[in-house]
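Dear all,

This email documents one entry for the complex benchmark we are building for the journal club exercise. For each entry we list the sequence lines for every component of the assembly. Then comes the predicted three-dimensional structure of the complex as a token string, followed by one or two observations. Please use this as the template for your own entries, and keep the labels exactly as they appear.
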Amino acid sequence: MATRSGLAALIGATNAGKSTLFNRLVGERLSIATPKAQTTRLSIKGVVVAANPDGDRTEIVLLDLPGIFAPRRALDRAMLAAAWRGAAEADVILFVVDAKGGLSPEVSGIAERLARMTRPAWLLLNKIDLVAKPLLLPLAAELHATFPFTKTFMVSAASGDGAADLSLALAGAMPEGPHLYPPEQISDLSERWLAAEIVREQVFLQSGDEVPYDATVETESWEERKDGSVRVGGVIKVARPGQKAILIGAGGRRIRMIGTRARAVLGEALGRTVHLVLRVEESAGWDEDRRHLAALGLTEPQQRKET
Ligand SMILES: Nc1nc2c(ncn2[C@@H]2O[C@H](COP(=O)(O)OP(=O)(O)OP(=O)(O)O)[C@@H](O)[C@H]2O)c(=O)[nH]1
Ligand SMILES: [Mg+2]
């Protein structure tokens, strides 16, 4: 029997729960997820091999994408371009909507843009744990009036409700084709990238409203130790003066806490002891600097067909 393999892209307003759902479907915490908006900056691939309704194994390559929001700076525009590029490549677009937030102007804006794409899209009503059941069907109907979704799922990425049904349906919907990844590979992310993302997650979780959006993290060094542990050096770059002091905190307390938590999460992810050494650097305007964005893997697209 022919095998199946395809690409499914998670798109939606920022904070809809795309990364949480992505991690749930992949079964590993590959993509950082926080209560703050605009957490995801790059498209992230995760590979799931799931049983399809024929009893065969399908390879689903899932794409977690930056959320859609009104862009202000070069970084934002690059994030949005990455999101729409990812959607345009997909065999199936998974439109994730926060059921509690409902049909917001952002959500209808995304639905309008989906209508201009020639890709099948499924509606995923997420966060159903936060909404009274009788409200879900009317909301789904409202959303269907904005775009002819081919399927609808009600899920809770947080509890896992509905995730198995979604996987099964995806496995059945992928086109025939050979598997592209070796069975043990679940991502194309490097450990260095993961380390930087895990530190960035702590910056999001442990600093106020403004700093996370102006911060980026790079892994500067990676040193394997004889005892099997690894020493990771990271730099947190902030775009505006004064933010360095905020991140370091009184007596270095905040940066220490960021380091402690990130080390624990990274150690768990890598399954080994991690020594994490962090520093903070002021790097004015990195979020407007094309070279910097390119180094992060966020290049501005040459042609903007979708905008
Ligand atoms: N109660 C509840 N919370 C959820 C659910 N899914 C996600 N969340 C929470 O919603 C917040 C945003 O989740 P993310 O997964 O980071 O959302 P995202 O769509 O990837 O956001 P961006 O990357 O910023 O666009 C986090 O605090 C999650 O814990 C859910 O099903 N139920
Ligand atoms: Mg995300």
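Observations: The first helix runs from residue 18 to 26. Residues 18-19, 33, 39-40 surround magnesium ion (ligand 2) (CB under 6 Å).
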